[in-house]
Structures are given as structure tokens and as C-alpha cells.
Specification:
heterodimer, A: 317 residues, alpha+beta, Cyclophilin, 7-stranded mixed beta barrel, 6-stranded antiparallel β-sheet, 4 helices, 31% strand, B: 236 residues, 7-stranded mixed β-barrel, 4-stranded antiparallel β-sheet, 5 helices, 13 strands
């Protein structure tokens, strides 16, 4: 039997930064490969759920916006995350909802404003991309994942899986995240925290920081009161997601999904993983405060959040 | 093997410190602990990052917790203390074409060290190094330690482009750049062996804990082994 040629979504304009990604790359850090994956896993997960896809299906992370696509087949899509204008053939469409797409349709994303910086576009059946090292997550710095390890470009044909159209779903508005311009991040204190004086820690937890221009998928560099450690550097060691690294200038950097796997700057602890999306949805100028939490409380929160996710249901449109 | 310390790293991560220095014995302990915990990978454990003297362990908080992981680490450490498990690692020989045309910092490094370039080459290739860590970029293996006489600080201004295969020194560490990237290490030669290949198994010729020895080769052999001469940016 001859197999149907695979259908595709075609990139008319890639926008600022659009990356193919699944849930991320795990278990490869011993050869220096970072996790990659969506900076806002909640929004990513729901884009797929609204398209009746399993978790970990490949979708597109759109930073800021500007992505324009044309569909070469009838399909369904859903856009979640940062609030930005979405239109199909010029007709405005809602986010956080399944949308029917016909072959030839033009899907256009505008630009995010005040409410978030990262949006997720999923498609029924997912993008059919061969995984590298167990994942399709694009990490541009490594040249790994996605299409040849790079961001989407004009002219790319993104192969899509086939899937029978499902019911039109939406996430109830009250269940959608609100992306604030000022966020509080809970911090599990650890790592080299003993090398930060009580005064430095107090300053850190009682000050407001601002997201600098240097914020990307590797990390968010913050500006505010200095919190220098009593040592300049340490023997290089593994860096986990959300680790707060403080170089000699005392300005903290929160390390994100595309971080280097090891490094030698002192670290105060790590941002609670549940709070990473709130940070990564901020752009330059966003305001950040920190509060302290211990690993036991953090663990309870992770379990509770999982239960909340399991119980959260989409509603039919 | 009782000297270790467990610290919280994040909501789903602990880091185990097995020492404070770059030493083969400490690196071997890191390796022993990583192999002891390896059976849990893909289930309770999500990722492990071995480095010079520490092991970062990321766990799945839906399947276990930090108390469980602490207990596993303690158990592994006790077993290691009573056993005699020596983690040797394989010996890997990497060819290196040391010269001024393949290593623009070879002559300045020699001059600063008060040595001839031949002496630098002899010291670099005369020693067996250990793979202490892999990171910075996919396949970038930190090897140590080079003889103190050829230790050299990083360049004041890093190069925008260090070519793939560059054999380099920073302080008492040495490495082969697995791909073209920015970098501030001193470049003393080129290695024609690919250090990272995403499309072949194994992806790397070395793993953490392996031993590496550089074998000086000439220009002809370098080309015969598939080496290519790139153009270098001038160092500052």
C-alpha cells in the first residue's frame, strides 16, 4: 500500500524566534546536552491537550510573535500562552481553544504585548520531526533538535501527523494563567547558600529586581541590589533548572532550559520549577521579587500542582 | 569514602559533594556514585551531571522525594566504602597536530612559560589526563591536569570563533573543542578525531572517568586522518 505523502504547515514568516519543541531532552547531560523544552510547560501541555494530542507531542514555541503559516491540509490547531492576536485568513480567533483549519488557510500570529512573551502553537497529530537524543526540542546554541538544530525559517515545510479531527475544546478562562508584569518567585535555598552572608540574603529576599535586556532561553539576567557571595568561583558543577547564579558583579542570573550543564559561579539556590513560566513570560523591564521556601514545602506544591493538572478539564466550545 | 556532603540544589535536585579539589581519586568517587545510581535513571532519576568533585542528581518528584534519594546516596556510599570497586575508565589516544599553523597560541604560551614549543608539546603529550567533566557545549570534555609549567590563563579577550578540533589549555585544564564555538582557551594544536557526532554511536570517543593521552602527529598524518586547517582569529 502506498502511503500518503505527509502533509505540512508551511512557514511564510518565522517571526522573532519560533522553535519546534517537545517537552524537553532528559538524561543527556552527561555528554553536555541541556534540557531545552518549553519555558512554559503548562501552556505547552494545554496547546497539545486542546488538539487531542498526547503530552510530549512536538509543537512550536513562539517568542514574542510574528509567525505566519499556511496550511497544506485540513487540520486543527490551538494557541496558548502569551496573549497575542491570532487570525485565520484575517479573521480573529481565540486563544486557548481548538480551531478548525482548512487546506490553504493562512494562520497569522501578531505580537505579544503586556501579557507574556511565549506562546505555544500545537497542531492535531503534532509536527512529525525525528527526535535527536530522545527529543525534538530545538536548542539553537547546540544545533540540536527541530529542523537541523535551528529556529524556523521562511520556506520551511513542517510535516504534520495525521489525526481525525476531534471536538472543539477550550480551557475555561478562569483556569488560564495570568501573566503578570511583576512576579514573586519562590526559591528553594541551597547549593552555595552558605557563601552568601545573612545581609546579602536579606537584601536578595527583600529587594525588587528588574529583568535586563539579557534574557533568553539560557537564562534571565536581573538588575538590582548586589548580592555578592563571599567567594568568586567554585569548582565547576552541575546546574539545575532555575538555579540562581551570582557572578562577581552581584547581579543574579536565573538559569533556564537552554543553560550550560555545568558552571563555576556560586549559586544561592533555585527558583521553584512551578514559578519558572512566570519568569520566562516576562520581558526586559519585568519586575521580580523572591521569597524563600524549603524543599519539603516545594515538594508538596509539586504534588498538588500535578493533581490540579490531572483534574483540570477542557470544556466543549 | 565517608567524606561527602549532600546539599539541596532545587525542588527536584540534590547535589552530592565528594571533595573540593581536582583529583583523580575524587573524580573516581563521583563516577562510582553515578554508576551506583544509574539503575534508577529513566524512572526515579531524570538526569545526572557528574563534574570534578560533585554529582548533581535530578529526580522525578512524582515518583520519589529527596529523603528517598538521600537514603540511596548513603547506601551507595557505604557500599563503596566497604567494596574495592576501582573505576578505571578506558584509555583513549587522541592524535594532535601541534604547530604554529594549527595552534596560534603555542608560541606565545611557550614564550611566557620560558620553554621551547617542543618542550610544551612534550609536556602536553607526555601525560595521561583524566576526563573530569563534560559540559559547556555538547561533547566538550574537561581534561586535567596539565603540568604546572604549561598552565596558562584564559585569553583576555575570547575569540568569537575557535575552530572545531582545537586543542586548548586554560589554567591546568585542557580540551578539544568539539565544534566551532566562541572560546577563550589557548590554542596549541588541532585534533582530527571528531569529539562529538550526533549521528553516530557512541557520540563521543570519551566519557567522564576515561583517561586521555595526546599523540603528536605531523602535518601529513593530520591531513590523512581527515584534518582540515581553518583560519584562526588573532588572539589578544
Amino acid at each position: 500500500m502506498k502511503s500518503e505523502p505527509m502533509s505540512s504547515l508551511n512557514v511564510i514568516a518565522p517571526g522573532i524566534l519560533s522553535l519546534l519543541t517537545d517537552a524537553g531532552r532528559l538524561g543527556q547531560q552527561q555528554i553536555g546536552l541541556t534540557n531545552g523544552g518549553p519555558l512554559d510547560p503548562f501552556a505547552f501541555e494545554w496547546a497539545n491537550r486542546l488538539c487531542h494530542n498526547p503530552s510530549n507531542t512536538t509543537a512550536i514555541e513562539v517568542t514574542i510573535g510574528g509567525l505566519v503559516l499556511s496550511a497544506a491540509a485540513d487540520t486543527q490547531i490551538a494557541l496558548t500562552g502569551a496573549e497575542l492576536p491570532l487570525s485565520v485568513n484575517g479573521q480573529a480567533q481565540p486563544m486557548w481553544q481548538t480551531i478548525n483549519i482548512a487546506a490553504g488557510d493562512k494562520i497569522q500570529l501578531g505580537y505579544a504585548g503586556e501579557n507574556g512573551s511565549r506562546a505555544y502553537l500545537a497542531i492535531a497529530g503534532g509536527f512529525a520531526i525525528a527526535p535527536q537524543f530522545g527529543s525534538t526540542a530545538t536548542v539553537v546554541r547546540e544545533g540540536i533538535g527541530g529542523l537541523d538544530g535551528r529556529a524556523l525559517q521562511k520556506g520551511d515545510k513542517l510535516p504534520i501527523g495525521t489525526q481525525t479531527p476531534g471536538k472543539l475544546l477550550r480551557l475555561p478562562p478562569q483556569a488560564r494563567p495570568h501573566y503578570a508584569k511583576a512576579v514573586n518567585l519562590r526559591v528553594v535555598v541551597g547549593y552555595q547558600q552558605q557563601y552568601f552572608s545573612a545581609a546579602a540574603k536579606a537584601r536578595f529576599f527583600h529587594s525588587e529586581y528588574q529583568v535586563s535586556e539579557r534574557c533568553d532561553r539560557m537564562g534571565y539576567r536581573l538588575e538590582g541590589p548586589s548580592v555578592s557571595a563571599t567567594i568568586d568561583g567554585i569548582l565547576s558543577e552541575g546546574i539545575c533548572l532555575g538555579a540562581i547564579q551570582v557572578p562577581a558583579d552581584g547581579q543574579p542570573i536565573v538559569l533556564l532550559n537552554d543553560r550550560q550543564t555545568i558552571g563555576g559561579y556560586p549559586k544561592l539556590g533555585s527558583v521553584l520549577s512551578l514559578d519558572i513560566p512566570a519568569l520566562a513570560q516576562l520581558g526586559p523591564g519585568g519586575k521580580v521579587r523572591f521569597s524563600e521556601i524549603d524543599i519539603d514545602s516545594a515538594h508538596h506544591l509539586l504534588l498538588l500542582e500535578q493533581r490540579r493538572q490531572d483534574q483540570l478539564r477542557a470544556e466543549e466550545v | 569514602m565517608s567524606d561527602y556532603r549532600i546539599e539541596v540544589a532545587g525542588d527536584s535536585a540534590l547535589i552530592v559533594y565528594l571533595g573540593e579539589q581536582t583529583k583523580p581519586e575524587i573524580s573516581a568517587k563521583v563516577q562510582a556514585l553515578a554508576s551506583g545510581l544509574a539503575p534508577f535513571m529513566g524512572a526515579e532519576l531524570v538526569d545526572m551531571v557528574p563534574s570534578y568533585a560533585s554529582l548533581l542528581v535530578i529526580f522525578n518528584p512524582l515518583l520519589c522525594d529527596h529523603l528517598w534519594l538521600r537514603a540511596q546516596v548513603r547506601e551507595q556510599m557505604q557500599q563503596a566504602a566497604s567494596g574495592s570497586d576501582k573505576q578505571g575508565g578506558k584509555l583513549v589516544e587522541l592524535p594532535a597536530y601541534y604547530s604554529e599553523e594549527s595552534g596560534p597560541d603555542l608560541a606565545p604560551l611557550a614564550k611566557n612559560a620560558g620553554l621551547s614549543t617542543e618542550q610544551v608539546i612534550a609536556l602536553h603529550s607526555g601525560e595521561e589526563f583524566r576526563v573530569y567533566a563534560i559540559g559547556f557545549a555538547p561533547g566538550f570534555a574537561y581534561l586535567g591536569q596539565v603540568d604546572e609549567r604549561i598552565a596558562a590563563p584564559r585569553l583576555a579577550t575570547p575569540r568569537q570563533k575557535v575552530p572545531k578540533g582545537a586543542v586548548a589549555i586554560a589554567d591546568r585544564q585542557t580540551a578539544v573543542y568539539p565544534a566551532q564555538s566562541p572560546g577563550g582557551w589557548n590554542l596549541i594544536g588541532l585534533c582530527p578525531t571528531p569529539m562529538f557526532n550526533p549521528s553516530s554511536e557512541p557520540h563521543m570517543p570519551v566519557a567522564v572517568g576515561d583517561r586521555v593521552r595526546f599523540k603528536p602527529i605531523g602535518r601529513e598524518e593530520f591531513f590523512a586522518l581527515g584534518g582540515e586547517l581553518p583560519s584562526f582569529e588573532v588572539s589578544q
